[in-house]
């Protein structure tokens, strides 16, 4: 049962799509549903690997585009792979760079073969293809690699999105053909913007290629939450039930709960780390801006119930002071808390699914969490 | 023997002024010679308290001027003192704010009673007196408080320095009279720029006031190392032999060794943390700039012999990559290493003094350490 790619579903919710499972990887098992902290440039911002372990992080994400440009895939290969390079011995998922190159709107040109782009670092010219994206990820030696896909922005015309879906399917085939690394799982990525038929078409085509897992991309890019939920409702039933599903770029707590309810197993997002660096922390009643002057003399922790290092050792007043003073420790404490919060939320959902109590948890969560909209 | 202020000298070097001792404080003993990491704004930059403990830091420094302006002495008093505010239960030394207000050259005016200055944060007007400096430090509840002194810049005329010494002596009396906090040690500060007679005069006057310890200020402010060493040679013999001596603002490794050789027991400096954030790390052969391209594919640690977290888990190539990528973890790892290095250096000196081998350690240290001049 320890073969990488094996996905064992341990329990499913009777009335929602939620499920609890275990995904085997070359660096050990990942219990799902799981949130993956993002380490874009081979480091989860403000965190050290031992702290991620203390929080219970099971798998982290790194970025093909960024690591290809700096320090370069060969440097990391020479280090013995990304795990050894960054001192993280648990699973790593790398995204393909698709999202990043398509975000370089002024610096890129798309062809049927791939994307010509200029580096945001030094303006140097590069041509990222499905084959190259796979090759880089093989050099990085991640546990889970993602197919190179075409991401469209939101809003986007039906025609534009359809063309991107065509390309995404074509490139997925090319990635699959190019991929050789034993033990590394290659996931396909479903695109289709907010068009239900395109989402279904893309998911069906990818499902035929029989990937060991499926990303759902191009969501959480500005569309209303309801559209995202609708697209999930259209997509997950088409994907093979026995394979893990990964909703890319989603980390806002209410979205995580609703994603799980719709059968998603994996998530990643820069939100908890970015918000943390900006002094916004998650609590079970919603977001809290620690810089607010009401915390000047508030010597209680961010969340008295929380067992993270920040909540065990620092007060709101102290963290507020650190922020105002520009201390790195402020970013560290808030990031730590936010990642711990999401980790806890995922653990609670998993436990609830295993106990057949997911629906009650989902209801309670939404009752308590004041949804201020997805912060960006 | 656990009365705060008790200083027990355990061993002295036969041929130099070096000595190993134990200073009792309200938060426990401090083994000397000791380097105190600087936590200007109630945080040692890039470090968390648990990491400082892991390194073996015994006592840290915080800054009266900065904490008075933000978050304010009353906020910290209300938190239960600086230890509770910042989650550090070992000794804390606070400096008086003298050095900081005198650094505000354009924003301050000195009178016999104190210093009028404008806050560097918001331009608000304040008047810092010896009495206020003591009061603030009593609010902060530090273990060791420093007298409010007048620091002159370097170079400075004999006349100017003499006037500052007069004022420093007068203010030391006022601080002593104003100081009431039981268990908090108040140290005097010797000034006198690079004028031997002034240094001796200041030290003699302060010695008469019988402080539990003595700071040596106004050095390491731009004068040649030889002048600093000469001033120490003039000053320490005049100070009471049974009291701790604290050379303020010194943290460059060769200066620490020479300071100890001249009978100094305590040191502080922002150097290890500031250099760390800038990618410069200490090794036993000198400084190393981790950003250098020669480390691009160097997968060895900063120092293979070092047992700090950075050296146990990260390579030069990885840390260089983190720097170039602007990752907070780079500052964390290099700061951690530098503080660990100074801690180790002080421990080695203490051990050598106890074993009667200080001179040999001193010689070996200088043979190995390429002195590139005091980096500022």
Measured by DSSP, the beta-strand proportion of chain A falls in: 15-25%
> Roughly how many Å apart are the termini of chain A?
40 Å
Low-confidence stretches of chain A: none
C-alpha-based Rg of chain A, rounded: 20 Å
The biggest chain-chain interface is: A-B, 39 and 39 residues
Please tally the β strands of chain A and state the result. 16
User: So what's the oligomer here?
Assistant: homodimer
Structural class of chain A: alpha/beta
Q: Biggest β-sheet of chain A, characterized?
A: 8 strands, parallel
Shape of chain A: globular
General description of the model:
- The structure is a homodimer of 376-residue chains.
- Chain A is of the alpha/beta class and 376 residues long.
- The first copy, chain A, contains 15 helices and 16 strands.
- In chain A, the strands form 4 sheets. The first copy, chain A, has an 8-stranded parallel beta sheet with strand order 4-14-13-12-11-10-6-5.
- In chain A, strand 7 and strand 8 form a beta hairpin.
- In chain A, helix 3 runs parallel beside helix 6, helix 8 crosses helix 9 and helix 11 runs antiparallel to helix 14.
- The radius of gyration of chain A is 20 Å and the shape is globular.
- The two termini of chain A are 40 Å apart.
- The mean pLDDT of chain A is 96.
- Chains A and B meet through helix 3, helix 13 and helix 14 of A and helix 3, helix 13 and helix 14 of B.
């Amino acid at each position: 049962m320890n073969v990488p790619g094996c996905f064992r579903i341990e329990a499913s919710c009777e009335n929602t799509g939620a499920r609890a499972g275990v995904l085997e990887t070359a660096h050990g098992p990942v219990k799902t549903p799981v949130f993956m902290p993002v380490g874009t440039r081979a480091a989860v911002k403000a965190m050290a690997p031992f702290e991620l372990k203390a929080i219970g992080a099971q798998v982290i994400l790194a970025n093909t585009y960024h690591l290809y440009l700096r320090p370069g895939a060969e440097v990391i290969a020479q280090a013995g792979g990304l795990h050894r390079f960054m001192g993280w011995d648990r699973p790593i998922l790398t995204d393909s760079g698709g999202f990043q190159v398509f975000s370089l709107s002024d610096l890129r040109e798309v062809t049927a073969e791939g994307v010509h782009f200029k580096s945001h670092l030094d303006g140097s010219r590069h041509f990222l293809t499905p084959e190259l994206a796979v090759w880089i990820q093989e050099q990085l030696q991640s546990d889970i690699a993602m197919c190179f896909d075409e991401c469209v922005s939101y809003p986007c015309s039906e025609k534009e999105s359809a063309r991107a879906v065509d390309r995404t399917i074509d490139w997925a085939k090319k990635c699959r053909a190019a991929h050789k690394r034993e033990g590394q799982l290659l996931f396909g990525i479903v695109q289709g913007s907010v068009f239900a038929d395109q989402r279904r078409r893309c998911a069906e085509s990818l499902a035929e290629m029989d990937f060991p897992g499926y990303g759902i991309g191009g969501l959480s890019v500005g569309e209303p939450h309801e559209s995202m939920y609708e697209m999930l409702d259209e997509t997950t039933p088409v994907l093979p039930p026995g394979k893990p599903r990964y909703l890319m770029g989603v980390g806002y707590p209410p979205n995580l709960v609703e994603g799980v309810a719709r059968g998603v197993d994996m998530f990643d997002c820069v939100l908890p780390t970015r918000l943390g660096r900006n002094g916004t922390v998650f609590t079970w009643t919603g977001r809290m801006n620690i810089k607010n002057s009401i915390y000047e003399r508030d010597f209680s922790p961010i969340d008295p119930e929380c067992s993270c290092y920040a909540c065990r050792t620092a007060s709101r007043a102290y963290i507020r002071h650190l922020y105002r003073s520009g201390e790195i420790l402020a970013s560290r404490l808030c990031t730590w808390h936010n990642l711990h919060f999401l980790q806890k939320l995922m653990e609670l959902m998993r436990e609830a699914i295993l106990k057949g109590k997911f629906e009650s948890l989902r209801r309670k969560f939404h009752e308590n969490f004041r949804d201020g909209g997805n912060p960006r």
